[in-house]
Every structure is written in C-alpha cells, then in structure tokens.
C-alpha cells in the first residue's frame, strides 16, 4: 500500500475520532459534523475503492447525537492495523504514532492537522484565545499516553510552534471502573497565529 498524505489522513482520523474494531472486521469515523464524514468517505473511496455506510444519530448522550461512517473490510482493517492503527479502545490500549509518519515531516504535520480537527479546541471568549489539545488515557497506561502527547508536541516544535507543559487531570471513570486521566497542553499564546498559518485551524 502506497504511503501518502491520503493514507496519513485516514490513519489520523481513525486514531482520534475513529475506531478500528478489535475483531478487525470494521473501521469507522464518528462525528457530529456530517461534512467530516463526507470528507472521510472521499478519502476511503479514493484510497481503497470501497464504499461504507452512514449511521446517523448512532451514538452520544443528550440531544447532540454523533453520526458514523462505517467500512466493513477485514482486509483493509488488517492493513491499517499493520500500519500502526490501534485496534479496540484507545483509552485502555497502548499505541504510538507510527514511525513511518514520524520520520516524514510532511506526513507528521498532516497527522497533527487532522488530530487538531478531531481533538483540538479553542476558547475564543477570552482576550488571548487558547488552542488546546487533549486525550484520555487509563491511569495504568499514563506513561504510554505521555509519550504519545510528547510526540505531538515534538511535531509542533519541528514546525517552530511552542507549547506549554503537559497537564494531567482527573477524568470520568469508565463504566468498567477503569480510572482515566486527561492529558492536556496548549499552544503558547504568542504562537497562536503561527499555529494557524502552519497547521491550520479547522473548527
């Protein structure tokens, strides 16, 4: 399989707002914004020449239900897993940014761009907007989560974007009782414009 920017985008989407089944029978993207799913659909069709299926209002609590675009293909799922896409719940499993992405500056930058589309946030109701990034990780796998976040920060540093230290906060425990921590950092205020120019802000 050719490693290109389209593949990086698909991989990054699954890393953050997506999911690769533990059984490797299916992968999907989940979003409240149907336009994100349409973009994912185009990428998957272009790269793998396969169609998935939309599942509207398929998850989430309260009024704001999320939508999903699912693709059932054991072959593609196995390929994605072999490329470093984690299967099952990312909160309770170890994972890292694939080396083939980290070693390529263009790939790494695109991986982070999609990461911020999925997990980034900007508080604009303040004098100095804060561009934040966070993931949740089980307490037992905190070391693995920190390594992942440090790799994200390193990619930003390689693009001359400075960030704050990583904060570790208590998150809601899972239904199975596993303790979860939130790992969070932000772009320093002085580099907000540089981040938007180099990485882009999509929300």
What is the secondary structure topology, with strand pairs?
Layout: H1 5-16, E1 18-20, E2 26-31, H2 34-48, E3 53-59, E4 66-72, H3 74-82, H4 99-102, H5 105-119, E5 120-123, E6 130-138, H6 142-158, E7 167-170, E8 180-186, H7 192-198
Antiparallel strand pairs: 1-2, 2-4, 3-4, 5-6, 6-8, 7-8
Helix pairs in contact: 1-2, 1-5, 5-6
Would you kindly provide a written description of the structure presented here, covering whatever features stand out?
With 203 residues, this protein is of the alpha+beta class. The chain has two domains: 5-82, Endonuclease I-creI (Roll); 99-198, Endonuclease I-creI. The chain has helices spanning 5-16, 34-48, 74-82, 99-102, 105-119, 142-158, 192-198; strands spanning 18-20, 26-31, 53-59, 66-72, 120-123, 130-138, 167-170, 180-186. The strands form two sheets. It has a four-stranded antiparallel β-sheet. Strands 5-6-8-7 form a four-stranded antiparallel β-sheet. Strand 3 (53-59) and strand 4 form a beta hairpin. The chain starts with a helix and ends in a 5-residue tail after the last helix.
Which features characterize this protein?
single chain, 203 residues, alpha+beta, Endonuclease I-creI, 2 domains, 4-stranded antiparallel sheet, 8 strands, 39% helix, globular
Quick synopsis:
With 203 residues, the chain is of the alpha+beta class. It is 39% helix and 23% strand.
The main β sheet shows up as: 4 strands, antiparallel
Bin the helical content: 25-40%
Outline type: globular
> How many separate helices?
7
Low-confidence stretches: none
Q: Could you state the order of secondary-structure elements as H and E?
A: HEEHEEHHHEEHEEH
> How much is the radius of gyration in Å?
17 Å
Instruction: Estimate what percentage of residues fall within beta strands.
Output: 15-25%
* CATH class type of the largest domain: Alpha Beta
Question: Order of strands side by side in the largest beta sheet?
Answer: 1-2-4-3
CATH architecture title of the largest domain: Roll
């Amino acid at each position: 399989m050719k490693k290109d920017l389209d593949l990086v985008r698909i991989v990054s989407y699954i890393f953050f707002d997506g999911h690769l089944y533990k059984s490797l029978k299916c992968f999907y993207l989940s979003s409240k914004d149907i336009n994100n799913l349409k973009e994912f659909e185009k990428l998957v069709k272009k790269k793998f020449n396969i169609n998935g299926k939309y599942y509207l209002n398929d998850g989430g609590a309260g009024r704001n239900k999320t939508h999903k675009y699912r693709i059932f293909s054991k072959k593609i799922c196995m390929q994605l897993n072999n490329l470093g896409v984690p299967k099952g719940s990312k909160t309770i499993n170890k994972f890292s940014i694939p080396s083939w992405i980290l070693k390529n500056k263009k790939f790494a930058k695109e991986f982070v761009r999609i990461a911020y589309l999925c997990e980034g946030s900007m508080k604009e109701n303040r004098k100095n907007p804060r561009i934040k990034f966070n993931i949740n990780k089980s307490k037992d796998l905190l070391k693995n989560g920190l390594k992942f976040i440090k790799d994200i920060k390193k990619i930003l540093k390689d693009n001359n974007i400075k960030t704050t230290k990583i904060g570790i906060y208590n998150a809601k425990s899972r239904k199975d009782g596993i303790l979860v921590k939130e790992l969070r950092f932000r772009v320093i205020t002085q580099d907000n414009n540089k981040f938007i120019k180099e990485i882009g802000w999509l929300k």
